[in-house]
Design a protein that fits this description.
The chain is an alpha+beta fold and 191 residues long. It is 39% helix and 30% strand. The chain has one domain: Gcn5-related N-acetyltransferase (GNAT) (Aminopeptidase), CATH 3.40.630.30.
């Protein structure tokens, strides 16, 4: 299971092959409605990706890149449970970094550790945090309160943009996808 390939798929293939895994893996409070995913895909913001190794579907990603945006947001990323702990996640991130090398960086949001609904959720958040740190994502020095959920943002970038530049880019992504007014009401940057 060495070779990882990222296969960009359309919304129909996502619904047919990936959506049930998305629902199974991500808790209801972390998922976007399918309608919002479809709208973002149709507007060209969201790219849907199957992670393939040896012709086997082993995981998926959803990334967002807006027009005139300089960063890519890794919106959702999961390796299917039966393939976890086999370095496929690390290899998939490496493949994504290669695919998205023309952008200034890759952003990831992790639900703040220690604030989960229960101990199991807190362990899962901590595991996510360690994964991104192992794959050379760096924790940013601010947090994002988005639709009532507190996120710790991480970035993979060889550039040294300051926080204000990164915040501007994050807000550009959010506003483009969700609308300026919704984001104004439902997003707060906490420094």
């Amino acid at each position: 299971m060495e070779n990882i390939r990222l296969k960009y798929i359309n919304i129909d293939e996502f619904e047919k092959d990936v959506y049930s895994h998305y629902v199974e893996i991500f808790p209801d409070n972390e998922r976007k409605p399918l309608k919002l995913i479809k709208t973002s895909y149709e507007k060209g913001y969201t790219k849907l990706i199957k992670i393939i190794t040896n012709d086997q579907f082993v995981g998926f990603m959803m990334i967002i890149r807006v027009k005139n945006g300089e960063y890519t947001l890794l919106d959702y990323f999961a390796i299917l449970p039966e393939y976890r702990n086999s370095k496929l996640g690390t290899k998939a991130i490496e493949a994504l970094l290669e695919e998205e090398k023309e952008c200034r960086g890759i952003l990831a949001e992790i639900e703040k550790t220690g604030l989960g609904a229960n101990e199991e959720e807190n362990k899962y958040r901590e595991k996510r945090k360690r994964f991104y740190e192992r794959t050379n994502f760096k924790k940013l020095d601010f947090e994002i309160l988005l639709y009532g959920v507190l996120y710790t943002p991480y970035i993979f970038s060889k550039l040294k943009d300051d926080d204000d530049k990164i915040i501007e880019e994050i807000l550009k992504i959010y506003e483009e996808v969700s609308g300026k007014e919704k984001i104004k009401k439902n997003c707060k940057i906490i420094k």
